[in-house]
Automatic annotation (TrEMBL):
Domain TonB-dependent receptor-like beta-barrel: 289-472
Signal peptide location: 1-27
Residue ranges annotated for the TonB-dependent receptor plug domain, each copy included: 50-160
Full protein name: TonB-dependent receptor
Domain of life: Bacteria
Length: 482
């Protein structure tokens, strides 16, 4: 059976307006000292002290991240309330899914937009496959809760995770760290800052390497599971001419992650399920196959039983029929230009992001070919954002912005369901299913927010946004390919 579907949304427009009274911001979590650390945030797209920022934001400085022993994006959920970060499936081991206030984004596909946006140096990261880099050489991390459409390029309802990396400086400096552990764990971090022309032109280079053996093993394929090999590199070049209020920062990064997938083990088989799956008799055909299979015994150390005792723990060995794998590659670059024209501050962010992920997950943990899925996701995005900000008089300040992005991508999945238990006896009426799709996304947004200071402690805040989205999707679905 084959079917093709084509969808197109010609124009989607949305408008949101809100007015709020300003209130003192809640300070970031304490680092153990008596005083409150002065933290500069850009939650409202301008630099200001967190103590005077009237938004729901948690900010973490570099020192706070170190003291909390946060080494990757997933570890941030220990530092901010209402923040939850999951890594791994669906999609692959390197995927990152961020949820704020219970609003998750668990679909890695190109045709779905997350409810929580991720920004790195002001650049919108569109896909979960592009947010898995380790947290190295960061200036700060900001967790913003609630809708952010009147301040950021992309409109989101759940919030935003704003990551700011360290800019090059005029000092020659660097750092180097090596860590090791069991399972042949190795981690290398390196940072090098090089002044090219005094304080005017400087470069900064960052590299991170992680490698460790698997914590589990598939005895059928004799392959490790839950291992990791990753490389991450970033380079930034900043030019700030002397005597000028303009600067330009060029940045590029590359990330690759490889592993052999997650650990999946079978807990048991329901012998009464034969009616539910038709021609396959779980009590006889499947049970007999597993009972006589040497790989099952090598993995679990006991004969197969359709009624395993309560509390059975087979350890970190499995007997999956196929070798799982994941490979994720992501890279991009951006150019940020900012300066002043009279009393107006101007900022331009031009960016390109690319990601390509492919993986196979063996989902039943047995030598029988019951359930396995292979998926692939690819995304190319170009984006441009322009911001204007300033003050009118002593009481009113504002920020205006425009955003444009175009993204093309594709996604595919091949699932094997109830394949043959033995080479000579394939299960009838079961086989493979294929899903393949190409996606084209275009988004245009205009946004603005203003602040009017009534008194020294009370401010009125108003914001507005206009959005136009276009999405073209071509889907191909096929089943029973076996």
């Amino acid at each position: 059976m084959a079917s093709e579907k084509w969808f197109r949304t010609s124009a989607l427009a949305s408008l949101s307006v809100f007015v709020t009274a300003a209130a003192p911001a809640v300070a970031a979590d304490q680092t153990g000292s008596v005083g409150i650390e002065d933290i500069v945030v850009t939650a409202r797209r301008t630099e200001e002290n967190i103590q005077t920022t009237p938004v729901a934001v948690t900010a973490l400085s570099t020192e706070m991240i170190k003291q909390a022993q946060v080494g990757d994006v997933a570890g941030l959920q220990r530092t901010a309330p209402s923040l939850s970060i999951a890594t791994g499936a669906p999609g692959g081991s390197g995927f990152v899914y961020i949820s704020i206030r219970g609003m998750p984004a668990l679909n890695p596909g190109v045709a779905n937009d997350p409810s929580v946006a991720t920004y790195v140096d002001g650049v919108y990261i569109p896909r979960p496959s592009q947010g898995s880099a380790d947290l190295i050489d960061l200036q700060r991390v900001e967790v913003l809760r609630g809708p952010q459409g009147t301040l950021f390029g992309r409109n989101t309802t759940g919030g935003a995770l704003n990551i700011v990396t360290v800019n090059p400086t005029g000092d020659f400096e660097g750092q180097f760290r090596i860590q090791g552990g069991n399972y042949d764990y190795r981690n290398i971090d390196a940072v090098l800052n090089v002044p090219v022309v005094g304080d005017e032109l400087a470069a900064r280079f960052v590299y991170d390497f992680v490698d460790h053996d698997g914590y589990a093993r598939n005895v059928t394929s004799n392959s490790e599971l839950k291992d990791r090999n990753s490389h991450y590199a970033r380079a930034k070049l900043r030019w700030a001419p002397a005597g000028s209020n303009w600067s330009a920062t060029l940045s590029g990064d590359y990330n690759i992650i490889k592993d052999h997938g997650q650990f999946v083990g079978l807990a048991g088989v329901n012998p009464g399920a034969s009616a539910a799956i038709g021609a396959i008799n779980a009590a006889t055909t499947l049970a007999a196959y597993l009972h006589n299979n040497a790989h099952w015994y090598n993995a679990y150390g006991v004969p197969f039983s359709t009624n395993p005792p309560v509390g059975s723990n087979y350890g970190f060995l499995t007997a999956g029929s196929r070798s799982a794998y994941n490979r994720l590659e992501a890279y991009g670059g951006n150019l940020t230009i900012d300066g002043e024209i009279g009393s107006v501050t101007v900022k331009s962010i031009s960016a390109y992001r690319y990601s390509n992920a492919i993986g196979l997950n063996e989902l039943d943990g047995t030598p029988a070919q019951i359930l396995a899925a292979e998926s692939a996701y690819k995304s190319d995005q170009y984006s441009q954002e322009l911001q204007l900000s300033g003050e009118l008089g002593d009481r009113f300040s504002y920020i205006l912005g425009g955003y444009y992005s175009t993204e093309s991508g594709r996604e595919s999945s091949v699932a094997q369901t109830f394949g043959s238990f033995t080479p000579a006896a394939p299960a009838p009426n079961f086989g493979f299913s294929l899903n393949y799709g190409t996606v084209k996304n275009i988004s245009v947004g205009l946004f603005g927010q203003g602040y009017y200071r009534l008194t020294d402690t009370i401010r009125l805040t108003g914001g507005v946004r206009w959005t136009w989205d276009k999405r073209e999707v071509v889907l191909l679905n096929r089943t029973n390919l076996a």
